[in-house]
Amino acid sequence: MIVMRCINMVEGYPPEMRKAIKIVEETREERLKKKYRRLSLEEREQLVRKWHPDYRPDTKRALRIGPSKGTIVYNEVADILESWPIVDPEEIDLSKIDYDVDILIIGGGGAATAAALWSLYEGVDPDSIIVATKLRFGDANTVKAQGGIQAADRPEDSPVRHYLDTIGGGHFANKPELVRALVMDAPFIIKWLEDLGMMFDKTGEGEMIEYSGGGASRRRLHCARDYTGLEIMRVIKDEALNKGVHVLEFSPAIELLTDPDTGAVSGAILWNLETQEYVVVRSKVTILATGGFGRLHLAGFPTTNHYGATADGLVLAYRVGAALRDMDTAQFHPTGVAYPEAILGELITEKCRSLGAQLVNANGELFIYELEPRDVVASAIIRECAEGRGILTPTGVCGVWLDLPMIDMIRGPGTLKRTLPAMYRQFIRHGIDITVDPVLTYPTLHYQNGGIAINVHAQVLNPMDEPIPGLLAAGEITGGVHGRNRLMGNSLLDILVFGRRAGLTAAKLVKEKSNKPKISFKHLKKYTEELRAYNIPRDRKAPVILPDYRGNPDYRGRNPFLKILRISI
Amino acid sequence: MSPQLAGTRTGPKGGRTVRIYFMGKAYDVPKGLTIMKALEYIGYRFIRGVGCRGGFCGACAVAYRLPGEYRLRTALACQTTVEDGMYIALLPYSPMEKPKYNIEEMRAEAGYILKIFPEISRCVSCNSCTKACPQELEVMDAIQSILRGDIRKAAELIFDCISCGLCSIRCPAEIRHMYVFQLVRRMTGKYILPRAKHLEKRIEEIKEGKFDTEIEKLMKMSIEELKRLYSERDIEKA
Known about the structure:
CATH architecture of the largest domain in chain B: Orthogonal Bundle
Helix content of chain B: 25-40%
Distance between the termini of chain A: 43 Å
Distance between the termini of chain B: 59 Å
Largest sheet of chain B: 5 strands, mixed
Number of strands of chain A: 23
CATH class of the domain at 95-147 and 235-329 and 448-525 in chain A: Alpha Beta
Radius of gyration of chain A: 24 Å
Oligomer: heterodimer
Order of helices and strands of chain B: EEHEEEHHHHHHHHH
CATH topology of the domain at 95-147 and 235-329 and 448-525 in chain A: FAD/NAD(P)-binding domain
CATH superfamily of the largest domain in chain B: Alpha-helical ferredoxin
Largest interface: A-B, 103 and 83 residues
CATH architecture of the domain at 95-147 and 235-329 and 448-525 in chain A: 3-Layer(bba) Sandwich
Number of domains of chain B: 3
CATH class of the largest domain in chain B: Mainly Alpha
Number of strands of chain B: 5
């Protein structure tokens, strides 16, 4: 059987898809001379409103409980915010504190690590910092970011332009002071990474090789091949470990603790995934850097996100009174993998389009300018498929072509393999050589545009815009920096700019606070009363911690024979 | 002896399955799944040995053998599709201590690397590391480049390392490759690659407040005005 199958496949694609590729090849020569025109703001708006999942009536609902009651969010987000805590306060002994520290950082990605490093630089003792993360240190979406990091440092560019690009891409809904911090800190962040020894792509004279990203008016994406996020993460992680930062791996936070007298956040309950014991941490300052919601599979979409992206921090913050913003939007990356099935939903970086690859429908036609903002390109692909101009895979997934072989034709042979090694590897493992063949793509859930409200100091805000004492947040968990749509290359920047700011603020707060706070679950009282009032089912619990794909691998196919029985021994 | 499959649970019919062996049991799983998804299909919920699921984090290293083959193969569970007769073991960690060092007190010279990792001089060029690498990097060549003093070459060779640790598990010289390579890359980035001068200049300009007035103007602008400016801005060629 296996041999038969191999004969049927032609260079990684089944015969019917091979036929469809012919059309792409036949139109390539002609398309090389063409570009699709840019849309006006009105045309963009119309396209997005008609086709983007954000505007589908069945994907969202109003929150019934909590500080942002009445806010419209995706159903899957509402489900976890309207959930019972995992911990039963009665079962936890708060009189025994396992770790008593100044700063607790929850999360193990770029934002968490930047926060740890910058609080150390400000003089906080490494022995009074704990980083707690649910998988290993560095397991985060940061390492999956391929495209690059934005910073307006070329003479042709300026932070003012970066500001305008970012706020325009975000549909003018961004919080201005956060965008200002983002663009003005950007060159400092690149310099910091360069000083730490990050290997940026550079010319022989040291000029950064910079590409343009969707929605950016200048080339300002700094890269390290297509392993930009991985290179950032491993460098700052190495530095944090050199400086003696203590990390608790496989220890997700399952509830925050608050001081019953002041309402300040004063620590967290961690849960050891391996031994299932709980750990009580008291801290003067707690930083949430837990990332976004990709693994909640909003609107049934596959995702580019890492295994732990279940929005745990969002739940924790909401229970202590954090305000939410722009949570009715999600970023669907235009080009997720639609074939092969084994890597469905994985990211095909936007850099492919920066380098010249075109999007092509079943008729071999261009249908959108490739470097429009992500929500616009994603909407156009959804439209092509909905109106019958997509290509169907043998398992019924629809997609359009991303014509990758164009990259070498435009930029010279060898460019693709040199600049996109991760991408090349990912497909050649499944028998597809992307220097020769196009790949099939469809939008995939990529990024949480909104999140919990913060100020420029990374302090978490309540609905009255007042800081919640003791609680900071940075990165994808927060909202406001990107408005309603994030630009490529702004998230790696975001985690470092605001991770750094959280670290600086934490160091300052620690120096001001001499007394140890008290710890309690007082904040849960009001929350659980509301849950009871709305008859939220008792078995709906959050945070999610990890997705459950048992019998149902990553949202495709199902094992009809699996019968799970839970036994406690 | 291979574990036998107990009778009836055969999964999809018609040759669309492959038989894999895991933790002493045999399972029939649909073709085309990655090892990771196949294990989820048969009922495993990962709490370790899983990370990004996209081939970037190195958390899901596996070792396996194929029927009739003596060779021990290595791979990433999220990047490798199941094959008939695959005998699989997960290797979520490669045990090794990360040494601490201060990059500021070094130069890009092999001596600094050898001081921290003297074991690299024990490399016998057996190439086991290279054969084990799921990224197909020239791991042994990189170690040898360091020994010849060519730090930059080593960094280029192993830039795409995802720290899965499979090379170290196979290495008879017991080299801690992922940490050696981390140091090699940082040395290259810090001491060998030329510095970006345009970056320094821009930082000076920001410090001097060159852009403050303009940004503040944008921050106070009405959305209508911003929209006009945004639509009219010139766009550099990609």
